[in-house]
Design a protein that fits this description.
This protein has 14 helices and no strands. About 25% of the residues are buried. By secondary structure, the protein is mainly α. Its main location: membrane. Belongs to the binding-protein-dependent transport system permease family.
Amino acid sequence: MEKIKEGSVVALRVNRTIIYIVCVLLALLSILPFWIMFVNATRSTPEIQSGLSLLPSTHMMSNLRVLLDKSFDPIQGFLNSFTIAGSATILTVYFSSLTAYGLVAYNWKLRQPFFTFIMCVMLIPAQASSIGFYQFMYKLHWTNNFLPLILPAIAAPAVVFFMRQYLLATLSLEIVEAARVDGSGEFKTFNRIILPLMMPAIATQAIFAFVANWNNLFMPLILLTDKTKYTMPIMVSLLRGDIYKTEYGSIYMGLALTALPLFIVYFLLSRYIIAGVALGGVKE
């Protein structure tokens, strides 16, 4: 019996070691492209063209100077992108959570058809409606305006679906009934009780929504023609050299500056995701 127990312990340790090794390798594979991007931001164009390197070079400041000489305004780009991405993310997670709460907590006649309609909207690509959307914004004189890039974030079918599934698994309707008995209004119940319960799901979707809106190039490139309103992806897409030479170091520097806020947002919100996973692993 003791030999059997020792064998099982050894097998468990071997399996755990293999899992750790695989996780480390996957983590390195995920980090490697970003590391190469930041390394290339410190290398000159001839060094980049000579081959791959994992060690930083000494041309970061020169790449930054070349980048700024190309009318690249990172401060203005950061402000524009953060205004659009931050506002759109807040609208996405709040109104999607509110819609999902209405689909779960209320028993109304058209609840299932309404949810089916939301699922059908997910099948329509944004490019299919872009022409009509641009014409509509042009008639409203909303071109060169951030509002067409922010307000549509209220309707996010994929986020509504995720939030609904999360509430179906975690929300106890007895909590809602108890709040109503105590005289709490519907919006007060949602803001004070439901939103804190949904924080792990909100943090997860906030990361995805912020990244999607920050990296969005298609609609801003169509709607924004004023250079003072350009977002970071538009500025990076315009980083092209002349006919004879392309400064790849400055292009990588622009890409690195564009990706840096995404890492910051992820690290700020990841603790809520980890807390939610740990909370879900606790058995009552």
